[in-house]
Amino acid sequence: MLIKESTLKIVTISVTLLLAIFILSLLSGIVTHTSLQSLLASIASKEIRFAIKLSLITSVISTLMCIAVAIPAAYALARYDFFGKTLIQTIVDLPLALPPIVAGVGLLLIFGTTSFGAWLSSSGLKFVFTPYGIIIAQFTVNISFMLLIMRSTFEGISPRYEYVAQTLGCNPVQAFLQTTLPMSKNGLIAGGIITWCKGIGEFGAALMLAGAIRMRTETLPISLYLNMSCGDLDLAMAAATIMIIISVVSLYIFELYARHTQLY
Amino acid sequence: MLIKESTLKIVTISVTLLLAIFILSLLSGIVTHTSLQSLLASIASKEIRFAIKLSLITSVISTLMCIAVAIPAAYALARYDFFGKTLIQTIVDLPLALPPIVAGVGLLLIFGTTSFGAWLSSSGLKFVFTPYGIIIAQFTVNISFMLLIMRSTFEGISPRYEYVAQTLGCNPVQAFLQTTLPMSKNGLIAGGIITWCKGIGEFGAALMLAGAIRMRTETLPISLYLNMSCGDLDLAMAAATIMIIISVVSLYIFELYARHTQLY
Amino acid sequence: MPGILNYTNMIRIENVSKDLGEFKLNDATLQIDEGEYFIILGPTGAGKTILIETIAGIYRPDSGRVFLDKTDVTNVLPKDRQISMVYQDYMLFPHLTVEGNIGFGLRQKKVDKSEIKAKTNEITDLLGISHLLGRYPGTLSGGEKQRIAIARAVVTEPKVLLLDEPLSALDSRTTERLSAELARIHKLMGTTTIHVTHSFEEAFALGDRIAVMCGGRIIQVGTPDEVFRRPNSKFIADFVGVANLFRGRSVVHDDISEVRIDGISVVSSTVASGDVSVSIRPEDILISKREIDSSARNSFSGEITEVKDMGGIVRTVVDVGLPFVVALTKRSYEDLRLAPGTRVCIAFKASGVHIF
Amino acid sequence: MPGILNYTNMIRIENVSKDLGEFKLNDATLQIDEGEYFIILGPTGAGKTILIETIAGIYRPDSGRVFLDKTDVTNVLPKDRQISMVYQDYMLFPHLTVEGNIGFGLRQKKVDKSEIKAKTNEITDLLGISHLLGRYPGTLSGGEKQRIAIARAVVTEPKVLLLDEPLSALDSRTTERLSAELARIHKLMGTTTIHVTHSFEEAFALGDRIAVMCGGRIIQVGTPDEVFRRPNSKFIADFVGVANLFRGRSVVHDDISEVRIDGISVVSSTVASGDVSVSIRPEDILISKREIDSSARNSFSGEITEVKDMGGIVRTVVDVGLPFVVALTKRSYEDLRLAPGTRVCIAFKASGVHIF
Fold first, then answer.
1. Which among B160, C134, C140, C308 could bridge C144 via Cys, Cβ 3.0 to 4.6 Å?
2. Which pLDDT does position C238 carry in this prediction?
3. Is the CB of residue C83 less than 8 Å away from at least one CB of chain B?
């Protein structure tokens, strides 16, 4: 009987629904754990306001750094052939698979134990246990993802737009800036928003390099960690709730723009 | 002069090379931080062997769980239309954007504070501060990624293969198992390997739910964290080195198989 | 059309409707007899594929009933219908060898391995694809893939064979060869066959009967002659064109085919023998009041029976034993002072006679 | 071919080679005169696009030199060459309006806003696309996009205009219209134009001279008549076919075109007036020893000057003032007892005369 087709349909859709319920209950557990009033009070507290501000500043800067590096690197990988390209491509993809905590330890070793790190530190750029460390940790963990999105965006745009712009009076850089780059708007927005969102949530790498120092390197995830550790659930839930809201909004914007790119 | 085109080429390729050098120096800093001999001795130590074993077991189990849930859910999302599909799709994508540490806190609240958690605990399924917690944390963080890969794989396969199999004597489930599923081999391998690799490296969510308890919930990233905290650099580098090797190999296999899927 | 009760209907569908959004089927009723080669003809988007997929049981109709061999199968799973399907793009399972593909249906039915082997060999010998058994589909040509898809469908000895545009993805030479092959298989096996196409040449050459579809509806059912000579609507007349389509028996000598059609004999430079279909474009036929002595190898005399003014072009029907449609410019028509009843000669070159 | 020193060469390329892996250019040498409409004709993959992209300066040649208006531009950036390019798939910038697209080149040259406006209006009036200025390219038809791409290219008043298969992505009616448009623009502006195509009808209709390419090499250069009547290789003969291609002047009366070609007059049912190109397929011409009185509106007598046996088909050239190639079956040829020198009549219908 045809009813069996419905069995497959019912079973698979049920699994999907159960998964959605599981994820929703995770989130609602956090959001509803304290009363709305105490949640709002916690959000208004000095510590959480510091964490929000630090998270926003570090994530915006690290996202801009990712964009600044990803655009030229993605362009080179999408448009040019050069010696060792396959190897270099694999290396720059590595942070996609590397555990963030390992990346954080690697950064700590570079900046904390090498003469290069000592030189940077003596010239005022201290990364270990400072907000600068948070920025460089977010950058390291997220750069490959941004690069992946931009590469696939550039690969979807014919180089002939730039050729035409060149015959119309542009040098190659102008041609790129006036054709391929504006045409990549959707990929840039989708990649930027998800990179920013992942930057906000970055924990492992930042913990290793910048440490968990209250009111100094206390981003939202570090605040969540610190307040869970010392049992201040109200502040913890406030930090977690804000991150949930940021995730939901970011994912929504990402899906809106990514639909128009070649990514999926 | 045409030399200007080379300028764009030289600049963009240089940025790519600098990025590759930065990433390589992160890794080589870790791998070369101790001597090969002490590295091998550390890897052979009881603690690191425990961490390797626990990481392998938990990540393999969580990957199998991801596959078991992702296949039916991805099939439902790829093949059927149902009420509320867009909303459900966004919910099951959420862990892609959610910080792992927030997911970990959510899991801790469900299993540690609700009557559902208490009931599970009383029937022998304790997740808080146990290896089971590591498995469920890895599952929660990785399920959306596996789902994304499987959905895009299924969407790339015409449903008519299943129709033909049905006319040849299969019921719908058999038709799926004998056509679409084996044809999804590449996506399944690519998704499985990257999910496994991300499971091995999972830190934030596991830390919140299972804690960092030496020789009990000590996976490789937890071991790295514990040994960095107490200053045992030899053991820390051993854990980090193993994770680097796993990442490189996984990424290589992933790129090998993902090239044949519709993903990028 | 035959009465429902007096014939053995293999397939009967009654008032079947199905809405898939993009495509739809609207109140379709149809009877197909046992052993018939039935054509469903229509333009892209007419609902042809959804009709045969509904017959196969892929979709359950929104309303209406489907009968197979007198049994109501409206709610029966495809696997229990004994209906096989061949899609335009073959849908060979890429992870199985040719042998694995052909044996797929028999394995589902838990047939003995040795029997699967025997049946596979039999059908592949018949279709001339035995040498491909160990290959994977990815490496094969379109014509080879098509034969394997047909072998996979018929090896299970289905009651009904559904063919969805089986020839349209192939180049024209392969199309001609496979078209003959389909006729041969049907003759040999006698399986009731439903063949979906948008080509009226295919429909004319292969069909015992034809159903014409448009916009999800079946708008005419009949023999090829009924549909092509007496289209019941302007849509069908426009769609099939008013073409010179005939059937005859061809004999080849000296690289020239001579086709006997109802007593007259037409010469073609296409080489093909046996029972064939023939088409001649109305524009390729010359008309004259005197005998034509030229390089045109086909020359007949007859009487104008019909004249239709199409604007700049006049279509006349000249009966020379067969009705030939001849197109000429209005000016020529007037210059030659033609009219219904005029006796004329028509001529066309052997290269203008297309055999398929 | 004209001597290099006596003419004003706008473009001269000497022994240019470029290897892009998939496509390549092999030792190409070519001179193109000022104001010429030059066609590069060849099948897909012949290296036509890479040749014009090298002329535009997109690629720097591996070896050889490129001269523009007597200056060596081999190492000059595209932006400093004053060469504009129109691609087959238009490459309109999707993020700019039609006005933004057309003004793009002038903005790069820091031209005054008011002057950009004036020049844009002038060219869009000329091409009949003024009503589209505020639209974005995504919403336009193929023919509209093509005109905008041409407007964008010519508004900067380039020394050379490169057209890469400008008509092949369009339907046949639009192709005919735009083909006439290209001829008109060229006449009006006099810009040296290089037009890449794989259609020999386009080449014949538009080209002052033609270069035929194959496998990255230029294998013949000459006027259309030279290339089509006296192909210098079997490849060109096969590629262009042995077709009846002529140029003439057409006058329309009563929905019929009458084309005067070198003293003889051919009637066509395609309606077009002015200077036109005409083709008649050799298979569509009837040959006879006696006068042919039929519905065929074109009838001439002449003498067989050439006979070529192609297997089952014989190709004869009949000189009736113009050389017509006529194809007939060997059997007809023998039955009619034809030979070089035989006086014959040829006839073809007005519907067989294609004007483009």
1. C140
2. 66
3. yes
Name every chain B residue with its beta carbon within 8 A of the beta carbon of D18. Answer: none
Residues D117 and D234 occupy one common structural domain: yes
Of residues D277, D177, D260, D282, the one with CA closest to residue D225: D277
- Residue C28 DSSP symbol: E
- Helix count and strand count (H, E) for chain B: 14, 0
Q: Judge if D128 and D218 occupy the same domain.
A: yes
CA distances for C25 relative to A76, B197, C43, C66, angstroms: 52, 49, 14, 13
Task: Inspect the interface and report whether the beta carbons of D79 and A168 lie closer than 8 Å.
Answer: yes
Q: What percent of chain B has pLDDT over 90?
A: 80
Query: What residue ranges define each of the domains in chain B, with the CATH number in brackets?
Result: 36-259 (1.10.3720.10)
Of all residues in chain C, the one with the smallest CA distance to A2 is C77
Looking at the structure, tell me whether residues C219 and C257 fall in a common domain: no
Measured distance CA(D229)–CA(A167) in Å, rounded: 37
Chain A contacts in chain B segment 148-187 (CB below 8 A): 148, 152, 171-173, 176
- Over the stretch D19-65, which tens digit does the pLDDT of each residue have? 988 788 999 999 999 999 999 998 888 889 999 999 999 988 999 99
Alpha carbons D347 and D286: distance in angstroms, whole number: 5
Domain that holds residue D315: 245-355
Which CATH number does the domain housing residue C108 bear? 3.40.50.300
Question: CATH code at D281?
Answer: 2.40.50.100
Q: Which of residues 155-174 of A touch D (CB under 8 A)?
A: 158, 160-161, 163-172, 174
Query: Is C244:C320 a contact under the CB 8 Å cutoff?
Result: no
Q: Which of D300, D292, D296, D334 is nearest to D318 (CA)?
A: D300
- Grouping H, G, I as helix, E, B as strand and the rest as coil, residue C155 is coil
Same domain? For C79 and C159 the reply is yes
- The dihedral region occupied by C235, where left means phi > 0, alpha psi between -120 and 50, and beta the remainder, is alpha
- Note whether A48 and A238 are within 8 A (CB): yes
| Same-domain check for residues D91 and D233 | yes
Query: What parts of chain A have a pLDDT lower than 50?
Result: 1-4, 261-264
Does any domain span residue C271? yes
User: Does the CB of B97 have a partner CB in chain D at under 8 Å?
Assistant: no
Q: Domain total for chain D?
A: 2
Instruction: Say which DSSP state C35 is in.
Output: T
Asked whether residue C212 falls in the same domain as residue C256, the answer is no
With contacts defined as CB-CB under 8 Å, which chain A residues touch B193? Answer: none
Within-domain flag for C325: yes
Shared domain check, D279 and D179:
no
In chain D, what residues touch A166 (CB-CB under 8 Å)? 56-58, 77-79
Q: Are D252 and D115 part of one and the same domain?
A: no
Q: Is residue C29 part of a domain?
A: yes
pLDDT (0 to 100) of residue D238: 66
Last residue of a domain, one of C218, C241, C264: C241
Q: Which amino acid, one-letter code, is at D158? A: P
Pick the residue from chain D with its C-alpha nearest to A159: D91
**Single-letter amino acid, residue D156:** T
Say if C44 falls within a structural domain: yes
The first and second tokens of residue C83, run together, are 């209906």
Residue C76 to residue A1, Cβ atoms within 8 A: yes
Tell me chain B's radius of gyration from C-alpha atoms. Answer: 22
* CB contact at 8 A, D46 and D216: yes
Structural tokens at position B178: 């004998």
B135 shares contact with chain A (CB less than 8 Å): no
List the 3-42 stretch of A: residues with Cβ below 8 A of C. Answer: 3-5
User: What's the complex ipTM?
Assistant: 0.78
Final residue belonging to a domain, choices D241, D260, D290: D241
Q: Average pLDDT per run of 10 along chain C, which is 356 residues long?
A: 56 92 88 93 88 92 92 91 92 95 94 94 91 91 90 94 86 74 87 90 86 91 83 72 77 84 85 81 80 76 82 79 82 81 86 78
